[in-house]
Each structure stands twice: as structure tokens, then as C-alpha cells.
Design goal:
This protein is an alpha/beta fold. It has eleven helices and 28 strands. Strands 18-19-20-27-22-25 form a six-stranded antiparallel β-sheet, with no helix packed on it.
């Protein structure tokens, strides 16, 4: 059996404004009705695969479990990183955990934000690489390049290796992201593949490589895992030891130093969706080269991506060529498609201005559901709150605000001090300042309410929690 290891961190700034630090691209529905994370979990499931091991950060732990449940999956384990330290410590933590039960276990490590349309072809390619991994090699997957791409790292095949083979090949070296001239030369040479960041190896093989090339990291991550805390089904790695691990990728820490490498070519289609230009390409442009979302319209446009990510917000482009336009309720991006890789500069500029849009989506996802602010004034705020079936907000109070709740869909179980009652559609509840209160959804469908807050301070940090089924502080 193969143990899928899904890496689920990252900030996704290259796909701003849809992808932000609070809700990065792997959780967004960029390519259809499922998120990239859900599609990745489906792809690495079924015959021959165990339940996945997920490595993610604390803010995303409940998003991970909810999105897995939506595709009828349960994780084998969810490791919570105290802080992002790049891919090497994350992979090492997963390998150490799996090796406790079976050091010979096969691990397939993959990012959770890639697009691989042909699931069957990918599964066959993985199986073709198993024997080489069982023999103790570290197998990396290389994508047959289709253009002189400057946004990817490359893998140079060893002399005599076949870039079109259906078996693992010998690898000469890793190559950094090239400029356009060098990328064109490598494409013409025919002995280079894109580095997909996907790996297959046994737990003992990768642990041996870490022991040889990064022994200090082994010591730090081993201590972090040994002192980890179990928390509602999650495994929280210990922060002090974790902080001692180098912040480094698996490529730099291990792969570029190892002498037991092989590369498995894959040519059936892949993208890391590393920018809006990649989304345009993977979305299948029409005869004029345009890609439009449901709420977008192109008039006399060519080679253009138009996406409105907000219901009720229509985006119209007229006479555009080679343009990306992404509209959300709180931010709009307009860029020449050739400049799509510079979106991170926009995020940095917004951070410098102190704009919340740099990192925070207007919709805030919580373990119980989500909320969004509809109107904000000097001493009031209006929110729409959606509570999942069976979910419950914490028992809490506020120092600086009172609240009015109006249920518009479903039924709410409301606690206010010593009073507990059911509140149905079109009914309202008043929460006085300082009252201990809670909202629950006892029903089978999402419950929606409108909350009106009034007071001298309306920040989310004005919450005193007394009980919380999600164990938040």
C-alpha cells in the first residue's frame, strides 16, 4: 500500500485576490466544483492507497477535515506545523510518524494545489515507479515540458536516459528556474523535465537520506514529534523543537545531495497553477482565447481571463487583449497576462499600506462554518453567519458590544445566560453586553442568520470563551 502525504501549507499569493493567506489556493474552487485539495485527495485514493496523511498549519485544520468529509474521506493523520518551515521538515515529520508502524512503508509525497487531469494515467505512472522506490531509490516525478516555462525548476536527465520512457530514469541534476533564453534551449535539448515536486520513496530510504544529509533536522523534528500533543484528532508538533529545524525545501536539503535518485517521466498533463496565466491555460480558452466565469462577459476580447468570484457582481471586458481581470467583493486585479507572475508584488504593496485585503478574505472560515461582514460603521457592524449542521459556536461573552441575531434560514439553538431556546426563521434574539451566550445548529441543513453588532469596539479579539468544542483558546 502507498501512503499519500499531502502537503497543505503555503500562502498562495500568486493567485491573489482569490487566494490569500487566510484561505490559500488549495482550498479554493479554481478548476470546477471541487477545491484543488479535494481533487488531490481523490487522485491519491482508492485501490493501492491508504488514507492520506495531511501536513498543514493550525488555521487550516478544520478546513482540511471539512473538505475531506465533503469528498467522503477521512485522514489517516493530520500533522499541525507550529510554523511553516518549508517542505523538508514537513516530509521528515510524516516519514518519522509512518516509520513508527512500518519503516518499509511506501510514501507518495505531493503538494495539494496541483492540477493533474488524467487521474488514471498518473496512477499508472506511480505504479511504474514503485519497484525503483522499493529498491531504495528516491524517485522524483518529472513533467514533459510543453513550452519554455520560466516559472518551474527543471530536472536534467543523465546521459542515455529517455525523457519519454515509461520507467524511472537516471537523473543528472536539479536546475533552478531559468530565464526565457535558457528555458528555450532546454526545451530544444529534449533531456529536461519540469520538476513537479512529487516524490515516491520508502520511509526508511528518506529517513536514511535525512540522516546522511541533514542530521540536525532529524534531531529537531524527532523531538518535535516525540513531544507532540493530540488535539481533537490532530497531532500538534511541539513548537520549540520544530523551530530548531532548518527552513528549507526537500530539494535543497536532500534531493540535490542524494546519490540514489531516479526520475519518473509523466506526460499526461500537469500544472501547479502558479499564476493566473496558468489558470487561463488550464481552463481551456475558447476560439478567441478567452476564459470567462459565470458572472463575466467578454466583448471583442482575445486571450483574456475574466473571473468574477462574487455572486451578483458582473465583470465585463471590452476590447481587451492578453488581460487577466479577477473581481471580488473587496478587491480587483487587472494585469497583462505576461505580467501574471508579478502578483506577489501587489500583495507586498498592499501589506505595506496596511490593507487587510493583502491577506484576509472577506469571508472568514471557522470550524463551525463561516461569516462575512456586509456593512461596517463607526459603532455597528452587520454580518451574515452560516453555521454548519450539528456545529456550535463557543460559549462566550463580550466586553464592548451587544448583538442582535435574526435567523433567516434553518433553526438556531440559542443560549443567553441561563436561558436556552430554539429560534426559527424570521425570529430574532437580543444578546446584551456581557451576557454569556452561544449559537448552535441542531438541524440537518446549514443555518443562516444576520447579526447586528453595536458597541464601542467590534474587533474579533473581544471574545471571552468559556467552552469550545473546537478547543480554541
Amino acid at each position: 500500500m502507498i501512503h499519500p502525504i499531502l502537503l497543505c501549507g503555503g500562502s498562495g499569493t500568486r493567485l491573489w485576490p482569490l487566494s490569500r493567506k487566510s484561505y490559500p489556493k488549495q482550498f479554493a474552487k479554481l478548476m470546477g466544483d471541487e477545491s484543488l485539495f479535494q481533487a488531490s485527495a481523490r487522485r491519491l485514493s482508492g485501490k493501492g492507497f491508504t488514507a492520506p496523511v495531511i501536513v498543514t498549519g493550525d488555521p487550516f485544520r478544520f478546513i482540511v477535515t471539512e473538505q475531506l468529509a465533503q469528498v467522503e474521506q477521512i485522514a489517516q493523520s493530520i500533522l499541525i506545523e507550529p510554523e511553516g518551515r518549508n517542505t523538508a521538515p514537513a516530509i521528515l515529520a510524516a516519514a518519522l510518524m509512518i516509520a513508527r508502524k512500518d519503516p518499509h512503508a511506501m510514501m507518495l509525497v505531493a503538494p495539494s494545489d496541483h492540477v493533474i487531469p488524467d487521474t488514471a494515467a498518473f496512477a499508472a505512472t506511480v505504479q511504474a515507479a514503485v519497484a525503483r522506490a522499493q529498491a531504495g531509490d528516491l524517485v522524483t516525478f518529472g513533467i514533459t515540458p510543453t513550452r519554455p516555462e520560466t516559472g518551474y525548476g527543471y530536472l536534467e536527465l543523465a546521459e542515455g536516459a529517455d525523457a519519454g520512457a515509461n520507467t524511472p530514469q537516471s537523473l543528472a541534476r536539479f536546475v533552478e528556474k531559468p530565464d526565457s533564453t535558457r528555458a528555450t534551449e532546454m526545451l530544444a535539448a529534449g533531456n529536461y523535465l519540469w520538476n513537479a515536486g512529487i516524490f515516491l520513496f520508502t520511509a526508511e530510504a528518506i529517513l536514511a537520506a535525512f540522516g546522511k544529509h541533514a542530521p540536525n533536522m532529524v534531531e529537531a523534528v524527532t523531538a518535535s514529534l516525540k513531544n507532540a500533543n493530540a488535539d481533537l484528532g490532530f497531532t500538534r508538533l511541539a513548537p520549540d523543537a520544530w523551530a530548531e529545524a532548518d527552513n528549507i525545501s526537500i530539494d535543497y536539503a536532500i534531493m540535490e545531495k542524494a546519490d540514489n535518485l531516479a526520475v519518473m517521466p509523466f506526460s499526461a498533463g500537469w500544472s501547479d497553477l502558479g499564476g493566473w496565466d496558468a489558470v487561463w491555460m488550464e481552463s481551456g480558452p475558447d476560439a478567441q482565447g478567452n476564459v470567462c466565469s459565470e458572472n463575466a462577459t467578454a466583448i471583442d476580447c482575445t486571450d483574456t481571463l475574466l473571473r468574477s468570484e462574487t455572486d451578483g457582481l458582473q465583470l465585463v471586458g471590452i476590447g481587451l487583449d492578453n488581460i487577466v481581470a479577477i473581481a471580488m467583493g473587496d478587491a480587483v486585479l487587472v494585469a497583462d497576462k505576461s505580467q501574471a507572475q508579478r502578483v506577489k508584488e501587489a500583495v507586498d504593496a498592499l501589506k505595506a499600506k496596511g490593507s487587510s485585503q493583502a491577506v484576509q478574505l472577506p469571508r472568514d472560515y471557522r470550524p463551525w462554518g463561516w461569516y462575512e461582514s456586509l456593512v461596517i460603521g463607526g459603532r455597528f457592524q452587520v454580518k451574515r453567519i452560516v453555521v454548519n449542521p450539528g456545529a456550535s459556536l463557543s460559549l462566550q461573552s463580550h466586553h464592548h458590544r451587544s448583538e442582535h441575531w435574526i435567523v433567516v434560514e434553518g433553526t438556531a439553538k440559542v443560549t443567553v445566560d441561563d436561558t436556552v431556546k430554539l429560534t426559527s426563521e424570521n425570529q430574532s434574539v437580543y444578546i446584551p453586553l456581557g451576557a454569556v451566550h452561544r449559537m448552535e445548529n441542531p438541524g440537518k441543513v446549514p443555518m443562516v442568520l444576520i447579526e447586528v453588532q453595536t458597541g464601542s469596539y467590534l474587533g474579533e479579539d473581544d471574545i471571552i470563551r468559556y467552552e469550545d468544542i473546537y478547543a480554541r483558546g
